[in-house]
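user: Kindly work through both lines:
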Amino acid sequence: MIVVPWLAKLSRLYQPRNPLFWLMVVFNLLSSVLIWLLHNRPLNGVATALVAVFALGNALFGIVLMLRLMREPKEEG
């Protein structure tokens, strides 16, 4: 059987017993909500910039947590 290395690492993302998994999910959901807010609500310039910075920050934190989960061995249990 041929195992693709990046596919094996991708399977490490789903770790419901690991708190980092849930933080990653929360950050990614919050980014989606903030982007929805930017597109569907009229905001002034300062509020738009602030919401955009928070959305980008949440997305970056989600990516960092995703990479960290992919590097760590999957918890068994």
Remarks:
- Residues 18-71 form one domain.
